Amino acid sequence: MACNNCSTRPVITLSNSNISLCRECFFRYFERKVGRTITKHEMIRKGDHVGVALSGGKDSSALVHILNKVQKRSGTFQLSALLIDEGISGYRAKTKAFAKRVCKREDVPLVIVEYKKEYGSKLDRMLKKSGSSPCTICGVLRRYSLNKHAHDLGFSKLATGHNLDDEAQSVLMNFFKNNMDIQARLGPVTGIVSNPDFVPRIKPFYLLTEKEVATYSYLKGLLLVAECPYHKEALREDVRNLLNDFERQYPGSKHGLINAFLRLLPLLKNEVKESGGSVKNCIRCGQPSARTLCKCCELVELLK
Ligand code: SF4
Ligand code: ZN
Known about the structure:
Layout: E1 10-13, E2 20-22, H1 23-40, E3 49-53, H2 58-74, E4 78-85, H3 92-106, E5 110-114, H4 115-119, H5 123-129, H6 134-152, E6 157-159, H7 164-176, H8 180-183, E7 201-202, H9 210-219, H10 234-249, H11 253-274, E8 280-281, E9 288-289, H12 295-303
Bound molecules: iron/sulfur cluster and zinc ion.
């Protein structure tokens, strides 16, 4: 078997098209696809300050690398990275050190925010006091810290490493749970109503599969194998396996699901907007929130 573009040995076969590509052709395919996604969804504009939500994992590390390339080529926006240190022993120290190396290599400024400083306690400690699932607590606090610091650092966009598999899983999970308000907040550029305190999130890997991002990261020396010890969201794991089984039997299913969702998304956003999906400001911390007291302040109160 040879690369479909040239006769070199392939490094990957794309599941939805059965096309095999060699290293150099794959890099070109990958980078072009990111470029087209950014352009099509108007993710980055002239004068933007883009912050990458960097975890040190394969997706966000590859995102720093590729956005840095785009930035150097265009020179029309600024690039930084923001890492949230939840305080998870046996995991975060390793990924934080890797993230620092990536940013040093790419010469991208990195800001690190710690739960311990922000909320007075590491996630490991918080979990001893709470009966909620780790990812529920961690997710609320991380979303809050990311937005708050992205805003304070002057980021106009927050780029996340979500890929097509992540999005397909979220879409299916929201359908299963009938979470249509949350569903409407997904998409390549998130958010429904604009609020000056809310930094829009962009997903440049929206149309690339997990396998493609992992292959790109590996070939670029950006693949760190580290899994959070709390990573056990049962429903997501089941949906992930279901989608992977389906993709094996019916190639192109994940792309089909995402393309169908993209056609539905404008209708969903309108429906949520019309049914009063407005953004207020939390009465305690002033951050944007759909409720009077934001979820983060509520959680911090409960954990006291
Ligand atoms: Fe936080 Fe859960 Fe992600 Fe671990 S897997 S970093 S606990 S959201
Ligand atoms: Zn609040």
